[in-house]
Design a protein that fits this description.
Strand order of the largest sheet: 1-3-2
Number of helices: 10
Low-confidence stretches: none
Radius of gyration: 24 Å
Oligomer: single chain
Number of strands: 3
CATH architecture of the largest domain: Orthogonal Bundle
Length: 143
């Protein structure tokens, strides 16, 4: 669905009930023209739109545009959480071999970041190119 000026005018009956809604729809129109691959919530945030208008748009407009309702408070995953997933994988599966791609899929890190982290930590050991063996660094230090 594309937000056009006619679409905005067709919702004029709701504007009196919800303050800032017309402005919110025009902001969405700019988002759709300029940055449709980004999050509409992040795009609307600097405009300081009223909560009631954002909520109405979230429930009535965005599902038609994006296909699903994405929660507004969704935060990006932190890198330390991705590293913790790798550590847990290594501790739960000692001596099991993983490919770089499998580790990328589990962690969500890029392959370059993943390899840099693996070389700096003792949770995985290189077996051969692209194959990593899970290790427990504490057990390795004791031995």
């Amino acid at each position: 669905m594309i937000i056009t000026d006619t679409y905005i005018q067709s919702h004029r009956h709701v504007f009196s009930e919800i303050p800032d809604l017309e402005r919110c729809l025009y902001v969405l129109q700019v988002w759709q023209k300029n940055e449709p691959s980004t999050s509409p919530y992040k795009f609307m945030k600097p405009y300081m739109l009223q909560e009631q208008a954002r909520t109405w748009v979230e429930q009535n407009i965005l599902p038609n545009i994006t296909g699903e309702i994405i929660p507004m408070d969704t935060k990006p995953e932190k890198r330390k959480d991705k590293y913790a997933r790798l550590e847990r994988l290594a501790l739960d599966n000692p001596y099991k071999e993983f490919t770089t791609q499998e580790l990328v899929d589990v962690s969500g890190l890029s392959s370059q970041t993943l390899v840099t982290w693996i070389r700096a930590n003792g949770y995985f050991r290189a077996v051969k190119r692209g194959i990593w063996e899970a290790r427990n660094p504490k057990d390795d230090r004791k031995a």
